[in-house]
Design goal:
421 residues, Heat Shock Protein 90, 6-stranded antiparallel β-sheet, 5-stranded mixed β-sheet, Beta-Lactamase, 21% strand, alpha+beta, 2 domains, globular
Length: 421
């Protein structure tokens, strides 16, 4: 909180002290508006300082930018130095087609110019500016008539770009830019804090979770070194070690997936695709396994299912995670149903099973990192991360996931995604 207010104070002083003549010349005209904007920033700084969920934080930042600059839209593009690319991470109106993860070229965009020059910019007519990434207007169905963008700088390095477009009732001004720089300073500190908190939180949980398999490996190793075990016991110890190594590998992979998703550094490859074809592929993946376990696997998907826009690979991972759970927690002779339907500009997909079910008092915890149902832990191997990954992917695509379950009857997970028009 202190760092946020300090960032705000420094920018406030810079604004007033760097251009006193300009301020005095426009004192009567602009002072009330400027004071109002900076009063809003004080309130915003408190709000940002208290938010540690990165996605919620970024949403608050773009909403604040749109409010203080009186713009139609605002967005944050994060910079990936490893790939030298920019990608949208948050926007005030995702329904316009601006999807999280959409990649913007560094060399052919105003945002890219901001990253390379580490300077803010005001563009009164982007349509006539050769740096404008024209494809974005067709993707979002919004014409960019004016633009103000600033770099988000952390320790002298650009981590992203904050943009507002289409000023209501006029053009963006130098005062708008100064207010945005103040907001950007606060936003950058809040983003850094959120990432640090997430990193320490995830590492702490991961270290805690790997203690059990590491303890089992340590015990097995000591027994093998003791020479007090026969060949049959040695084989058993080796089997235990192989199982625990596989568990560590699975946990590490799931942990990395979740860490990338929650850190905001995961880039989605956004395309329009047939959700029907994707679900059919998921069905084919698990069909043989269900037949081997004598599980009846039903597929109920209409031919007229609308297409969706998103990262096909990530959504496929989400649905395979759900189906994998449906198989793991089922029983011989059980049943699984993969169903989809269209309703009110949405696609609703459900995965139902006739498995163990989840007790009512644990259902609210099932999407928490590393959480596993108490009665399942000794019966079915798992990392407790699969459903966290599913929820993060679905949420990032503007969707939602819910569940209904009854012990010894079964569980249904329902995913709702926005459908293309």
């Amino acid at each position: 909180m202190i760092r946020l207010l300090s960032a705000y104070r420094e920018t406030w002083l810079k604004f007033y002290l760097s251009s006193p003549q300009r301020y005095l010349m426009k004192k009567n005209k602009t002072k009330p508006t400027l004071i109002n904007s900076y009063q809003k920033l004080i309130n915003i700084s408190c709000d940002l300082a208290s938010e540690l969920d990165l996605n919620i934080l970024l949403s608050k930042i773009v909403n604040a930018a749109s409010e203080v600059c009186d713009s139609e839209e605002a967005s944050i593009l994060m910079f990936d130095p490893a790939k030298n690319t920019l990608y949208f991470q948050a926007a005030t109106n995702l329904d316009t087609g601006l999807k999280r993860g959409l990649v913007v070229p560094l060399e052919e965009s105003i945002a890219g110019w901001i990253v390379k020059n580490q300077e803010p910019v005001i563009v009164d007519d982007p349509q006539k500016d050769t740096r404008h990434f024209n494809s974005i207007d067709s993707i979002t169905n919004i014409k960019t008539d004016s633009l103000l963008g600033i770099p988000l700088l952390s320790k002298g390095k650009v981590i992203g770009v904050l943009e507002v477009i289409n000023k209501r009732g006029g053009k963006f001004t130098q005062e708008d830019q100064d207010v945005m720089l103040a907001l950007g300073a606060q936003a950058t500190v809040a983003i850094d804090n959120s990432r640090l908190f997430l990193q320490s939180d995830l590492i702490g949980e991961f270290v805690h979770q790997i203690r059990t398999p590491l303890s089992a490996l340590n015990a097995a190793t000591h027994l093998l070194k003791s020479n007090r075990v026969d060949d049959q016991q040695k084989k058993k110890m080796i089997d235990i070690m192989e199982a625990e190594i596989e568990a560590l590998s699975d946990m590490s992979s799931a942990f990395l997936d979740l860490a990338r998703l929650q850190s905001g550094r995961k880039q989605y490859s956004v395309t329009e695709f047939s959700i029907r074809e994707l679900l059919s592929e998921c069905y084919d993946i698990f069909y043989s396994e269900t037949q081997q376990q004598a599980i009846r696997f039903n597929l109920d998907i209409p031919d007229t299912l609308p297409r969706v826009t998103g990262d096909r690979k990530q959504l496929k991972q989400a649905f395979t995670n759900l189906l994998n759970n449906a198989v793991k927690y089922n029983h011989e002779g059980g049943e699984i149903t993969l169903k989809a339907l269209a309703k009110k500009k949405q696609v609703i997909i459900s995965v139902s099973d006739s498995g163990m079910g989840i007790p009512e008092d644990e259902q609210s915890l099932i999407f928490e990192k590393f959480y596993r149902v108490r009665s399942h832990r000794d019966l079915v191997p798992g990392t407790g991360l699969g459903l966290s990954v599913v929820k993060q992917i679905v949420t990032d695509h503007g969707g939602a996931i819910t569940l209904t379950s009854e012990v010894n009857v079964g569980t249904t997970f329902t995913v709702t995604l926005p459908a293309d028009k």
